Amino acid sequence: MAEQVVVLVTESQWSDAVAGELADIAGQRYKLQYHDEQKYEYTEIVPTGETY
User: Fold this and answer.
1) CA 34 to chain CA mean position, Å
2) How far apart (Å, rounded) are the C-alpha atoms in residues 31 and 8?
3) Range of the structural domain that residue 2 is part of
């Protein structure tokens, strides 16, 4: 078994049912926040503060 598994879902895929299935096994939830600046673009990993 893997020590860590990363699950990536879009906002439209994330539902109460998905959250319920992951509640007992997930540790922390993060959100990828896309920034499109004039000089460059980047994606920031932002903790949501929600733990399971």
Assistant:
1) 13
2) 9
3) 1-52
- Note whether 44 and 33 are within 8 A (CB): yes
C-alpha 41/C-alpha 35 separation (Å) is 6
Phi/psi of residue 37, each to 5°? -80, 165
Q: Whats the size of the chain, residue-wise?
A: 52
**Which pTM was predicted?**
0.62
Instruction: Give the integer Cα–Cα distance in Å for 45 and 33.
Output: 6
Q: What is the pLDDT along the chain (52 residues), one digit of tens a residue?
A: 888 888 889 989 989 999 899 888 888 889 999 999 888 999 999 998 776 5
